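Pipeline run #58 for the internal structure catalog. This entry was flagged by the ingest filter as a single-chain record with no existing model, so it goes straight to prediction. Upstream metadata was stripped on purpose; only the residue string is passed forward. Reviewer on rotation: M.T. Logging verbosity set to normal.
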Amino acid sequence: MTTHLATARTAPSTSRPRRLRGLAGAAALALALASACSGESEQTTGFTTSPGTATAPATAGFTTTGASTGSTSAGTEGSTSTGAETTSSTGNSGHVPTTDPGSTGDASTTDAGPVCGDGVVEGDEVCDDGVNNGAYDGCNPDCLAFGPSCGDGMVNGMEICDDGLNDGSYGGCNPDCLALGPNCGDAMVNGMEECDLGVNDGAYDGCNPDCTMGPYCGDGIQNGPEGCDDGNKVDNDACSNVCATASCGDKILQPGEDCESGDLQGGTCQSEGFEGGNLACNNMTCQYDTAACYKCGDGLVNGPEKCDGNNLNGKTCQSEGFVSGTLACAGNCASFNTSGCTKCGNNVIDVGESCDGTNLNGQSCASQGYVTGTLACNPACNGFNTAGCNDGDCCQTGAAGSCSNPAVKNCVCALDSFCCNNQWDSICVNEAKNNCGAKC
């Protein structure tokens, strides 16, 4: 029959029980369990067996005394069981394991302190993942420090960045350490950035490496393809808003230009002092072209004008259907004044003509008061030329009163009745020529 020493049960340790370590402890525990199952007397740490009980193999650090030795259970290293009394091999330390009455006889163990590698953070351990191989996001082998991880201020493993804060602020790192926070070069305008194209190389119309604006039209500095850069937004001055030097043909109306690239800016012939017409733009000079405008009196034949002042546009009386004369321009420049033109010479007696060329309109020297001869029309067709006419027998001697021109005859007879009563002698001929206008 097994005898149990009644002892007070030790208070539970506040620290986590440690695993039994070593083969000896494991063997002792197995033996105790086997003994309990076979009906043999139980022996737990701090307990003895009665004489006559079969002796189980002793475990490391345990001894038994008496006539017979009972089975011993796993105990704490250095403990000795002697009969009914159990003492510590360390002397009078006062640490005596006891069992609680009614206990199953399980051994009470003492805590050997924190153990790095048991997966439990204890004592001065900072971490304990059971592996503790110093891998990324794990624990170091001594359990006194974490392995590499996001937030340690060092770029490790798959990390892109690690600034220790990792709060995603401008110029910093994202919380997962897998991407930079907003920064100059991410192709997004953040924070105090003026621009960010991703490639910030300071090229013209691009961004500087510090994400300020690179050279551009309007910065007041001539650079890149610029012809000028006055830094202002006035488009119609010497430098346009695209940084091009002002010039005719740039489609921007500059000072001194009337028009630009066909744009008349609302100008008309009338606005330029003409009566009408079509105003145009000279694209070489950017000045108005008034060639198609007209104003009677300016000496220019344009628009609906046929002539202007002395400018007859190459026309003459002959071009207007007359034979001769002097053509003039009417006061409205819309027609010609043909009063100085004549059709004399076309052998047609027109209005105002007495005769025309050989057309004497039925007249002869006799009808003009002469006796004989050849009548002619004067050059203006407004009268006759009697140079070819004569008084015939009035200029010759003959019988009394033989002068056929009544006017001459009457004149001579009045002066000398002899000429009409006796003979038309040489004295009568002279009187006819000299005193009575006879043409001889």
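catalog note: Confidence is low (pLDDT under 50) at residues 1-108.
catalog note: The radius of gyration is 75 Å.
status: ready for reviewer M.T.
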